[in-house]
Design brief:
alpha+beta; Nuclear Transport Factor 2, Chain: A; 2 domains; 15 helices; globular
């Protein structure tokens, strides 16, 4: 965290004095450099970029209204993080936690002809574009255990959502941002003893839900060439509608989930369940897939497009975030962007025929610089 020298520099910054005097341009100039890391912080707290942006907007409004009370006892960055953390806690108190489909219910039976009905979009964790991730190349704070990319991986975000809001804040402040126990206590207006106790409980919950290796560690072990070989083999089999070839590129207990659909496949059901799902679902030959490689949550992702008859072209269907393990793909999380307004289960047998959801199309595709169609 910032030392006394940084705090003094903030107090002496003429732009801060101008902002205190009501200069909106000066205020924008001093807070803008922190916007990228603050949005990632809010995303970790909320589990959704859409929610995180709402929280960040409220944070900036509170900071503007309160800049006159900023006395420079801490750095401007620390002050903004305090506002963002407490604004996130207020928001979390008004809504249910977001979850990953695998934590929402048991795995589905691929023999069922009708998939599980969608749940409201506010239920699910959502992806985070890599281009929004600010990676500080400087020295990591001594109390930080998770690097920037690890701290937005889907498994980590999903694990965080199992924590009560205060524990979530403590773990993020201590082990992602590297705050000391004293700084964390000051931010949350609690005691060091309470912070220490909350951190112990939070660590136990999160570590029990995380894989042995983070995706960043796994990607480093595989190397760029290794990852490329896995992805190319997976896509080649997919393009040829070779179900056995696709399954071969998945680990024995790989999972395939599709929020906002509640159904997920694999896990203990293994390759048998995955093969059954692929045969009856995405690899029936009816979908006419196209795909673009991108990055999300510090991981590789595939933007999938399928034929959309109303427009006579390929339109976005799902952003598939990939996780790797044992030299294969261990998890596929497909963030689907189609409407969930229908109450007829039969409509989700042919989900690609549902209209595009404007908000999710923007969040899962356009934010990534991906096209809204492939002609």
């Amino acid at each position: 965290m910032a030392g006394r020298a940084e705090a003094r520099a903030a107090a002496d910054d003429p732009r801060i004095a101008a902002a205190k005097a009501g200069d909106e341009a000066a205020f924008a100039a001093i807070v803008e450099p922190h916007r990228g890391e603050l949005i990632a912080h809010c995303y970790r707290m909320m589990g959704s970029l859409h929610d995180a942006e709402d929280v960040l907007q409220e944070t900036m409004l509170r900071a503007w209204r309160g800049i006159g009370r900023f006395e420079g006892r801490s750095s401007l960055r620390s002050w903004l993080y305090t506002i963002a953390t407490n604004t996130s806690l207020n928001a979390l108190g008004k809504r249910k936690p977001r979850v990953h489909p695998i934590d929402y219910g048991p795995r589905a039976n691929p023999a069922d002809q009708v998939p599980g009905m969608p749940a409201a979009e506010s239920v699910w964790i959502e992806p985070f574009p890599d281009e929004k991730l600010i990676v500080d190349e400087g020295p990591v704070a001594p109390d930080a255990r998770y690097e920037a990319r690890e701290a937005v991986e889907l498994a980590f975000i999903a694990a965080l959502q199992h924590l009560p809001p205060n524990q979530r804040a403590v773990l993020i402040l201590r082990e992602v941002l590297g705050y000391s126990a004293r700084e964390t206590a000051a931010t949350l207006e609690t005691s060091v003893a309470s912070v220490t106790s909350a951190l112990q409980r939070a660590r136990a919950t999160v570590e029990a839900r995380l894989p042995e290796r983070s995706q960043q560690q796994t990607l480093r072990l595989l190397g760029d060439d290794g990852v490329r070989e896995i992805v190319e083999a997976y896509l080649d089999a997919w393009d040829r509608e070779d179900i056995d070839g696709v399954v071969e590129m998945l680990t024995e207990q790989a999972t395939f989930s599709m929020p906002p659909i509640v159904s997920w496949f694999g896990g203990e059901g293994g390759h048998t369940d995955l093969r059954g799902f692929l045969e009856q679902g995405p690899l029936t030959g009816d979908w006419r897939w196209k795909h673009i490689l991108t990055r999300s949550n510090g991981q590789y992702a595939l933007a999938f497009y399928c034929w959309y008859e109303p427009d006579r072209t390929h339109r976005p269907f799902a952003l598939n975030v990939l996780s790797f393990g044992d030299g294969k793909i261990s998890d596929v999380t497909c963030f689907i962007n189609r409407s969930i307004e229908s109450e007829d289960p039969e409509d989700y047998v042919r989900y690609p025929e549902q209209p595009l959801d404007e908000r999710r199309t923007h969040d899962f595709f356009l934010r990534y610089g991906l096209p809204d169609r492939i002609d």
